[in-house]
Specification:
The protein is of the alpha+beta class. It has helices at about 20-30, 35, 40-45, 55-65, and strands at about 10-15, 75-85, 95-105, 105-115, 120-130. The chain has one domain: Roll (Thiol Ester Dehydrase, Chain A), CATH 3.10.129.10. Strand 4 (about 105-115) and strand 5 form a beta hairpin. The chain is elongated, with a radius of gyration of 16 Å.
Length: about 130
């Protein structure tokens, strides 16, 4: 694994969730809120259609962050995010990040998840523990 330095970009992740992701995610998490799985209900409450679970997108942020540590999820020691918008199935989500600090084996990364022009997660901070070597 290459060494990470302040200012380095981490490898971005691009994902286009299919229209059934909200249904599968609802089953996995037990969150069957109809704004995620019923497009007509979502429209009835003023949304353009079904929206993805925020926790799904946060999982993509965690995966991208762990990727900076060689893909080992155990390296992700903490993650904080701000949910700043809605995301939708069948539209590409891009997760990017930049190393903002390195102290010993601790690496801090600022991460953003965007869908089109909307940053749906921003001000996210991941702390990774990357052993030397």
């Amino acid at each position: 694994m290459s060494e990470l330095n302040t200012g380095d970009s981490i490898e971005e992740l691009k994902v286009t969730p299919d229209k059934y992701v909200p249904h599968r995610y609802a089953g996995a998490t037990g969150d069957f809120n109809p704004i995620h799985i019923d497009p007509e209900f979502a429209k009835m409450v003023g949304l353009p259609g079904s929206i993805l679970h925020g926790l799904y997108v946060m999982g993509l942020v965690a995966k991208t962050s762990a990727g900076a540590a060689g893909g080992d999820p155990r390296a992700l020691k903490s993650l904080s995010v701000q949910f700043r918008g809605m995301s939708f199935p069948e539209q590409e989500i891009t997760i990017t990040g930049e190393v903002t600090g390195v102290e010993g084996d601790q690496v801090t990364v600022d991460v953003v998840a965007a869908q089109g022009d909307s940053q749906v997660i921003r001000n996210a901070t991941a702390v990774l523990e990357i052993p030397p070597g």
